[in-house]
Fold:
Amino acid sequence: MNTNSAVVAPHTAEPPPLLTVSHVASAHRCCVGEPVTWHTRVKLGAQPLTGLTVTVTLPHVLLLLRAPKAVAGAVPQPFPPDTLGWQVEWRWPQTLPAGTVLNLETETQVAQANSAEFEKFLSLDLEDMRSDRERDALARSVARATAGQDIRANDADCIGVAVMSRYMAHLPGIFRQENNDLLGRFLAMLETFWQPIERRLDHIEAYFDPQLMPEALRPWLASWATTTSRRR
Structure:
């Protein structure tokens, strides 16, 4: 008998969390003045929870577009910007049953380019923004949920704010001087409009590949080559 064999402890699965949070933006690249909706989903685990609080923190560059809606009896309380920007808080003092799912929405808008909020946002990294036109400024929002002192969960998402357009790289150097910030921001709005079209053009060859294109379009492709489309 081998007495030196190691004893392997049985694997025990971790218990499911009592609280989970998902936080995502409706768009991940925006220009000045554009709306962004933050979707927050809070789910309770296998136990009821009492005193749940959910807080959504927004960066300075985002303004509240309208007051958030009440959910499950909790009326949201917005707090004016501080060092972290706007905060919106929902509180449920009552006991929520196990498995409860709460879907929260925070509607925001990117501040205008000449606003104090936008300038404060850029002041953290303004010189670097002007020297690197290819990079968007990242704005991060965080959603936190707590129930008592021991139960916590959080999630975060970022959006890219187009401070200057990538199209500026294709213009003569005189247009990329510091006094042409307005032009860069105007082109950024055009870039946001053209981006979906550019993505389609980047993959246009897939529409002419019988193996990749939608089946409904194959007869149309076959008509180009004066052949018939047959299923395999």
